[in-house]
Amino acid sequence: MRPACAPLAAVELQSGDLMPPIGFGTCCRPSASGSELVASTLAFLQQGGRLIDTAQMYGNHREIAEAIRASRVDRSELWLTSKVNTRVVKSRGAALRSINTSLGELDLPFINLMLVHSSWGLTSQQLLDVWRALIQARDEGMVRNIGVSNLVRHQIEQLEQESGVRPAVNEIEFHPWVPNSTFQLVEWCTSRGIAVTAYGSLGGSANSLGSSSEVSSLAKRHNVSNAQVLLRWSLQQGVAVIPGASSTEHIIENLHLPRFCLSQAESDGLIRSPMPRSFTRWYNLESEWGPLTRAWQYMTFSSIVLDISIVAALAVCVMLAIRHRKHKQLQRADPLAMQDANFTSEDPAELELTSRPGASSEE
Ligand SMILES: NC(=O)c1ccc[n+]([C@@H]2O[C@H](COP(=O)([O-])OP(=O)(O)OC[C@H]3O[C@@H](n4cnc5c(N)ncnc54)[C@H](OP(=O)(O)O)[C@@H]3O)[C@@H](O)[C@H]2O)c1
After folding, report:
1. Region (Disordered): which ranges (predicted)?
2. How far is Cα 36 from Cα 29, in angstroms, rounded to an integer?
3. What are phi and psi of 219, to 5 degrees?
4. How many helices (H) and strands (E) does the chain have?
5. 77-91, 172-186, 289-303: lowest mean pLDDT where?
6. DSSP state of 58
7. Closest-lying ligand 1 atom to the alpha carbon of residue 254
8. Please, which of 37, 203, 265, 326 could form a disulfide with 207 given CB 3.0 to 4.6 Å?
């Protein structure tokens, strides 16, 4: 176990590569795309930050490439983590092609760390196929290290047993309010030499860290900010962090943590305190799935079926709305004729009223 107050150290992966302990997250907030992302990523690099966490799913590789080019940081100093989009990539060939595309978008000769984004919607065979693609990509030099995200112990064990390759990293949601099973997962990963990276350390983009009185009182006691308390807490558990931030002020705060440390009692007190109401819980780990999440997981298994159903349902709604509107218009125009009307066509343009001769005058 890392001594609580040790200075920030790089995380040594199984390959011997050193991964920076504090990175920059590029997902899930309004500023995580376009020119705002270019500006914030550039600010992070200019402030001395070196690890950027992105993913194929975030759709922002090109903006990140632009920021890297503008920063003029040497490739050898930079750490780029990305993830295979397992919502759409479910085979070995597709995974290899997607990595190739990512390299082009990022304008980089290699990616430092490529992760399987999640097991959602994948059979265990598909998960293994994607993992085998990552092994091949590493062997061919497209990526330097390979790992997983949102996987639990039995899934990691299975990948290792079937492929003979242990993931270098598991990126998961981690903060003081995750369930006990996540703490056990972190301990198990660490004991196997699998580095853990935390996402959601600050509660996601809807957070309001000030709403936790426990975090605020620790921040006051150590003369640091609320965010710095949470980031330090994670690092003291031996878990790297990748906070997302829009403003340069936040970026500086997150990157340059003052040299303070939380005592064991303070750390335990944080875990026991209520989770700030505004915190986002992702429930991405299989062990945390409740019945609703399982139902959703089942549906995403056949995502094409789901997509088709959604499009069909929307089309029916639109058709019904048009019919209803036309019907109302006709009713307003000639309410008596409507009572006796037969619709001879589905097409509103061809809509025709065939009334009995003299029907309207009789009534
Ligand atoms: N592997 C996965 O499945 C997965 C899932 C989710 C996220 N991630 C990765 O993890 C990264 C971080 O996780 P996250 O997006 O859940 O967000 P987070 O890092 O927990 O929180 C980001 C939010 O914290 C705010 N913030 C940042 N620094 C702050 C500071 N010093 N003081 C106060 N507020 C501060 C930011 O506000 P401002 O924007 O206003 O600065 C932003 O809204 C993502 O960007 C992504 O790269 C991975």
Report:
1. 344-363
2. 11
3. -60, -40
4. 14, 10
5. 289-303
6. G
7. 31
8. 203
- DSSP per position, 206-271: T--GGG-HHHHHHHHHHTS-HHHHHHHHHHHTT-EE--B-SSHHHHHHHHS--S----HHHHHHHH
Q: How far apart are CA 352 and CA 94, in angstroms?
A: 52
Q: Closest residue (by CA) to atom 45 of ligand 1?
A: 25
Q: How far are the Cα atoms of 171, 245, 254 from residue 32, in angstroms, in the given order? A: 19, 9, 17
Residue 245 alpha carbon to ligand 1 centre in Å: 6
Separation CA 166–CA 150 (nearest Å): 15
Q: What is the DSSP string of 291-327?
A: HHHHHHHHHHHTHHHHHHHHHHHHHHHHHHHHHHHHH
**Geometric angle at alpha carbon 68, from 227 and 101, rounded to 5°:** 105
**262 neighbors 232 (Cβ within 8 angstroms):** yes
Q: Which residue has the tokens 């065939």?
A: 354
Supply 270's token pair: 């944080």
Q: Which of 225, 164, 234 is nearest to 195 (CA)?
A: 234
Beta-sheet strands, E only, within 182-308: 195-199, 240-241
- The beta-carbon contacts of 71-76 under 8 Å, at least 24 apart in sequence, are 71/42, 71/45, 71/46, 73/45, 75/108, 75/109
| Higher per-residue pLDDT: 154 or 204 | 154
Helix, strand or coil, per DSSP, at residue 358: coil
Q: Which of 27, 54, 14, 11 is nearest to 138 (CA)?
A: 14
259, two tokens: 């040299």
Helix, strand, coil shares of the chain as percentages rounded to 5? 50, 10, 35
225 C-alpha to center of ligand 1: Å? 15
Please state the length of the chain. 363
Name the residue type at position 126: Q
Is 199 tagged catalytic? no
Q: In which band, very low, low, confident or very high, does the pLDDT at 356 lie, cut at 50, 70 and 90?
A: very low
Nearest CA to ligand 1 atom 4: 199
pTM for the model stands at 0.84
